[in-house]
Amino acid sequence: MPPLSPPDLPPEPAPAVQSGLAIGSRIRILRRARGLTQDTLAMSTGVSRSAVAQWETGRAGQMGSKLRRIAEALGVSVSMLKEGWEGLATDSVLSSEEMTLLRLFRACSTEDRGVLMHVAQKLSTGPGLEHESEARRSA
């Protein structure tokens, strides 16, 4: 099957972490997306679980000093926490192939996403990758 060209792609959905969201909402979305509990995020940032709950509901005033730790724990930049996806050079973060895969994944049903995740996990641990990583090391 030939690769899809940009006009063939489904429309890109609104990003999950938009700039219009409050910082607490972005923290909650990112935490959940990474499968972290409030307790886990609290431990990795050196605060209590109730502090994380307060951040996520917009009731905390002491988040500023912890932004760097929060961002590191969530695997994003501080600017991502503050501003969302807008303003980020997404094309410098993801290749065009990665962006295409992401758009196609988002267009799938929940059931199909599960199938795709299973296939991707199998492919990422397959024997072909061992040879590829050995070739990279010797190059």
From TrEMBL:
HTH cro/C1-type domain ranges (all copies): 27-81
Keyword line: DNA-binding
An annotated Gene Ontology molecular function: DNA-binding transcription factor activity
SUPFAM superfamilies, A to Z: lambda repressor-like DNA-binding domains
Protein name (Swiss-Prot/TrEMBL): Helix-turn-helix domain-containing protein
Highest taxon of source: Bacteria
CDD domains for the chain: HTH_XRE (cd00093)
GO cellular component, one term: cytosol
PANTHER family reported in the protein's UniProt record: HTH-TYPE TRANSCRIPTIONAL REGULATOR, METHYLPHOSPHONATE SYNTHASE
